[in-house]
Amino acid sequence: MGEPGASGSRAERKERTRRAILDAALALAADSSLGAISLRQVAKQVGVVPTAFYRHFGSLELLGLALVDESFRSLRLMLLDGWRHAPEYRDVIDGSLPIVAQHVRENRTHYAFIARERTAGSPRIREAINHEIELITRELATDIARSGAAEHYSSTDIALLADLVVSFVVTMAERLVDDPDAEAQTLDQARTQLRMLLVGALNWRSREPL
Fold this sequence. Notes:
By secondary structure, the protein is mostly helical. The protein has two domains: 10-58, Arc Repressor Mutant, subunit A (Orthogonal Bundle); 61-202, Tetracycline Repressor, domain 2 (Orthogonal Bundle), CATH 1.10.357.10. It has nine helices and no strands. Helix 5 (89-106) runs parallel beside helix 8, helix 5 packs antiparallel against helix 9 and helix 8 runs antiparallel to helix 9. The longest helix has 25 residues, at 123-147.
């Protein structure tokens, strides 16, 4: 068996096969985890020999890392753009939550993969997911500090606030994956919870030096 897609340039065929491998892994791991499937299963699903798999990914774990990167890349860009046009805390909430909901809707298999692998994945994949979440948290903390919205916060407390917000968003995304039909209710609850949290945040004064 050759690689799928006989037409087009070599680069185009290679990209189509790579995409097919990623999609096959997502489909096969839908009811379990990446660690429960085999390289041969993925190759068979795509219609290629195992050696063709290795031309794209050195192992299933490397394939999983590629899926983690793919899952977070566009989300981070969308959130950053939203945050940098949000002058107040409420704007951060009202802008971020619909962005995440839309992204989950359009990339549900990726989010289901992330939700599973965050707890059941290999140590390396779990570390990669946590690293991506930490990046989003640090980027939010930087934007909060630059906006002046937390002028009475120490840098430590700004980081804690960003971590709380991102933790809420991650939990909301997992709920959207588990119950897509309840999206409106999930968004409404998350919005209320974050606003409750920020009522305290707006009146917070750090005890340590700013």
